[in-house]
Amino acid sequence: MNSISSIMGEQKLLPIIQVNNADDGVDIAKAMYEANLRTVEVVLRSEKSAEAITAIKAALPEMIVSAGTIIDEASLKIAKDAGADFIVTPAVTERLLTALTACGLPVLPGVSTVADIVLAREHGFREMKLFPASLSGGAAFLKAVGGLFKDTRFCPTGGVSESNYQDYLSMSNIFAVGGTWVAKPEWVEAKNWQAITDACLDVK
């Protein structure tokens, strides 16, 4: 199974798309594509999120579209049926990890404690999402666990912003950061797609 870091390649930002309709999802994804981003995460937080995944895959066949906010077997099925390329979760449980390891797709499991990291490792995962990063110790936490888990790498999400993402990316055990700041709700509401492209281009 491909690692998430190998899927993302040189891309260091996993931009998060939150939408209430599929059309906005496609336009956001296109704006990100214009900024040379090829991997995005669509969070399953509305009834239209799964439709957005399918629509983005149809409109931009080269784009890798992950499904986020996978919290149980039901949402995992929705993500797979929508055509998601990989799965992102906000947390882990024994039952959820068992389903994830059997789902046939690459997975980025969400952790927030040392115990979570150990649990995910027991299921074979070596790349994880720290969520919510800012409330789970942030960069200081990731620095501390770096010595404990030398073969484990993270993608912090939640509280990551244009003002602090470089602090995370400077660390050796961080392969990417996830964030919503590159697709602010007011830009989406105003259909200011260029602002999204520009924000994505600013991430170096």
Structure description:
With 204 residues, the protein is an alpha/beta fold. It has one domain (11-201): TIM Barrel, CATH 3.20.20. It is built from ten helices and nine strands. Pfam families: Aldolase.
Concise structural overview:
The protein has ten helices and nine strands. With 204 residues, it is α/β, with parallel strands linked by helices. The strands form two sheets. It has a six-stranded parallel beta sheet with strand order 5-4-3-2-1-9.
Return the structural class.
Answer: alpha/beta
Helix segment count? 10
Assigned CATH superfamily: Aldolase class I
Rounded to an integer, what's the Rg over CA atoms?
Answer: 16 Å
What are the SSEs and their pairings?
Layout (H helix, E strand, L loop, with lengths): L3 H5 L4 E5 L4 H13 L4 E5 L5 H11 L4 E5 L4 H10 L3 E3 L5 H8 L5 E2 L1 E2 L2 H9 L4 E4 L7 H9 L6 E2 L10 H5 L7 E3 L5 H5 L3 H9 L3
Parallel strand pairs: 1-2, 1-9, 2-3, 3-4, 4-5, 6-7, 7-8
Helix pairs in contact: 2-3, 2-10, 3-4
Task: Label this structure with key terms.
204 residues, alpha/beta, TIM Barrel, 6-stranded parallel β-sheet, 3-stranded parallel β-sheet, 10 helices, 9 strands, 41% helix, globular, EC 4.1.3.16, lyase, 2-dehydro-3-deoxy-phosphogluconate aldolase activity, Aldlse_KDPG_KHG, Aldolase_TIM
